[in-house]
Specification:
The protein is an alpha+beta fold and 450 residues long. Helix content is 51%, strand content 12%. Strands 1, 2, 3, 4, 5, 6, 7, 8 and 9 form a 9-stranded mixed β-sheet that branches. The two termini are 59 Å apart.
């Protein structure tokens, strides 16, 4: 309430007069009105219930608290109102406040508002974080009340309320992690450079009427998907025949992206220099990451860790090899990556194996053509891929499936003797050579780039 009546309402009145027009109250205070309504309703209902339940010998009971808390949960939509405010505070409010403080008019306005006696000598930053602190202290408050409650039924009600609050806080934490992850993935997408096909294959002949079309890659906005999670990132060294290349790897929950670091010395643009508080961020600031070849799906490579004998023979310390294979069991690449120390190497191997196992478990029950890039594929291309999947089946398999359907419909012949294992593709000897390597058959990344 103090934040609303001492800061937000005066700001609106000042803006009506034509001052502080550069400030956006919604970016700073978010859903403050909705939050004040929930808090005011809870306090009003709680005090009203206390007065109704009051007697000459008793004042207050756990039942009154739990009933008021149930109404608070309903009005706040299981904490969604608090979630929205906390997310805005963590990801936008403080940054936006710092940009506003670059204006002398806003600094003067802030000092004038803080002189209000209702602020109790608290600054704007202290009042902005207060709702978030109140939200996180609810479980501790309910736990202390349950600790001193003797009635079994009331303790059960308090336990239920406590579980609801803890579940809401877990959801809030997951949302905050998702927002930070998505912001980082979006930032990576802005700094990633996808080289055209002419740079990837200089010897390829491209007709003149296709050069302008193939000059840019259609996957420039591929990374920023709401479902994609960044698992790990960091620098590694790629060992080639004649030199060592500094690489920067991005491990997502579905692909591994190998890039080369390209430092960008471009200066700040004029619009950003003239309007530093506009929140505009130049996407070319900082290093650029040039994609090395193509992304690798997590089920399309095999990890080979160099043993002591191999290290002594090659002289490669803290190194491991990624062998890239296609869905046709063809080896199309081998990347020898070297870390700076053994701890970094162990950390990378742990994240690679863990992400690969999670990817396989996630796609066990899905279609062979399902992948995280399905939303980026053109409908006609998707239909073509579906047809290609059915066309690649041999006549023997199709005939066997048709026979099985006929026998199942008749239900007169025992079909348990039919062997269905021939419907699966035979694995090559690659996986046997790299024993213990994380590998399974699922969607190929090659179909995306064909």
């Amino acid at each position: 309430m103090v934040l609303k009546h001492c800061f937000r309402e005066p700001m609106k009145k000042v803006q009506v007069e034509g001052y502080l027009m550069f400030a956006e109250p919604g970016d700073l205070f978010a859903n403050l009105d909705e939050l004040c309504y929930v808090s005011y309703t809870f306090c009003k209902d709680f005090i009203s219930s206390l007065l109704k339940d009051m007697s000459p010998t008793n004042f207050g009971s756990t039942k009154v608290l739990t009933s008021a808390f149930d109404r608070l949960t309903k009005h706040s939509r299981n904490g969604e109102v608090y979630h929205r405010y906390c997310l805005n505070y963590s990801n936008n409010a403080l940054t936006y406040l710092e940009s506003l403080r670059k204006h002398d008019d806003f600094c003067e306005f802030e000092k004038w508002c803080e002189q209000d006696s209702r602020c109790n000598r608290l600054q704007l930053t202290d009042l902005l974080v207060a709702p978030m602190q109140h939200c996180t202290k609810m479980p501790l408050l309910l736990s202390n009340i349950r600790k001193y409650t003797a009635d079994v039924e009331e303790r059960m009600h308090l336990t239920t309320s406590l579980e609801i609050v803890e579940k809401s806080l877990v959801q809030l934490e997951d949302k905050m992690k998702w927002v930070k992850n998505y912001e980082r993935v979006l930032e990576i997408q802005q700094h990633v450079v996808w080289p055209p096909v002419t740079d990837m294959d200089p010897k390829a002949y491209i007709p003149d009427f296709l050069k302008s079309t193939l000059n840019h890659q259609p996957c420039e906005r591929l990374l920023a998907s709401p479902k994609r999670q960044l698992v790990h990132e960091g620098p590694l060294t790629l060992v080639e025949h004649s030199k060592m290349v500094d690489m920067y790897l991005f491990l997502f929950d579905d692909i591994l992206l190998l890039t080369k670091i390209k430092k960008n010395r471009k200066k700040q643009s004029a619009p950003e220099a003239n309007h530093p508080s506009s929140g505009y961020k130049n996407p070319v600031d900082g290093p650029m990451y040039v994609v090395h070849r193509q992304p690798i799906a997590l089920d399309r490579f095999i990890i080979h860790d160099l043993g002591p004998a191999e290290v002594s023979a090659t002289g490669l310390k803290h190194a491991f090899v990624l062998v890239q294979i296609t869905r046709f069991q063809q080896v199309i690449g081998a990347y020898t990556l070297m870390a700076s120390n053994d701890t970094t190497k162990t950390n990378w191997l742990h994240h690679l194996k863990s992400a690969t196992e999670n990817y396989k478990d996630m796609h066990k029950a899905t279609s062979p053509l399902t992948n995280c890039f399905q939303e980026n594929i053109h409908p006609q291309i998707h239909e073509l891929q579906q047809n290609q999947y059915h066309d690649h089946l041999s006549p023997r398999i199709v005939k066997r499936r048709d026979m099985r359907r006929v026998l199942e419909r008749s239900k007169t012949i025992d079909i348990s003797h039919l062997d269905t294992q021939h419907e699966e593709d035979e694995c090559s000897g690659i996986e046997k050579h790299f024993q213990g390597a994380p590998y399974s058959k699922s969607t190929s990344m090659d179909s995306v780039y064909i």
